[in-house]
Design goal:
α5 links the parallel β4 and β5. The chain is an alpha/beta fold and 237 residues long. α2 runs parallel beside α9. It has a single domain, classed as Vaccinia Virus protein VP39 (Rossmann fold, 3-Layer(aba) Sandwich). Strands 3-2-1-4-5-7-6 form a seven-stranded mixed beta sheet. 38% of the residues are buried. The chain is built from nine helices and seven strands.
Length: 237
């Protein structure tokens, strides 16, 4: 189900799963860290699971979070009463700030009009030649019923995402697959077995035992030929 502005309503259990993925979230923040500086816009803050980590980064001077869902906004304000939060989309942003970075993790796939969204990011980042720190689900062949439950319009191919970013006015700086093992686990659990929920203990096991090894190999030895997600840093030109 999507709202009139083309943004799918989020599924709260997606955040429940992410809550268990502490190492996963920390790894993403660390990988994006060189580009998270100055004025940073967090798009799709949800209940603030990444906000909690972003606000600790010493290079971030100002952090503004955006979230569309009123229920998530209410929870966000309870957890972060002093943080700047815009209830809506990037089109509701009224600040004239020159943005140095936009942080968007597992958000773009929820937006039906993703081309227009990327063009807006490019426009906001262009004055400061800022960086888009983007993370999205990959590989359409593993689009599963649970993706639809999450409100995902798509899983991206490399070619599709590269074309959309370049057409929106971005130059790619980093562009790679992420989580090779996760691709197979997603296919097994959600495509083959058709599961519609996450198992908390399994997520914790993967995050604490398997993911650190996989991510260490992918980051330090060899980038994977494909993976569950795409990790992107792109600079507005």
């Amino acid at each position: 189900m999507s709202q009139p502005n083309g943004i799918a309503e989020p599924a709260e259990f997606e955040f429940e799963a992410l809550r268990e993925a502490e190492n996963y979230r920390s790894a993403l923040i660390k990988d994006f860290d060189p580009y998270l500086r100055g004025n940073v816009l967090e798009v799709g803050a949800g209940v603030g699971q990444f906000t909690e980590k972003l606000q600790r980064r010493s290079n971030i001077r100002r952090l503004v979070s955006i979230e569309l869902d009123p229920t998530f906004c209410s929870k966000f304000r309870t957890t972060f009463p002093t943080r700047e939060l815009v209830e809506g989309t990037v089109n509701d942003l009224r600040s004239a700030t020159d943005w140095n970075a936009i942080f968007s993790v597992n958000v773009l796939e929820h937006i039906e009009t993703d081309r227009e969204e990327l063009e807006t990011y490019s426009r906001l980042l262009r004055p400061a030649q800022g960086a888009l720190c983007l993370f999205v689900p990959a590989r359409p062949e593993i689009y599963a019923p649970i993706d639809k439950d999450f409100g995902h319009f798509r899983r991206y191919t490399r070619r599709e995402l590269k074309t959309k970013l370049e057409n929106a006015g971005f130059t790619l700086v980093r562009f790679r697959y992420f989580n090779f093992v996760g691709y197979f686990l997603w296919w097994l659990n959600f495509c083959l077995l058709k599961r519609r929920t996450f198992d908390g203990p399994s997520v914790r096991l993967f995050d604490r035992v398997i993911f650190p090894v996989v991510h260490g190999f992918e980051s330090n030895i060899c980038a994977p030929p494909f993976g569950q997600s795409l990790f992107v840093v792109a600079v507005a030109r």
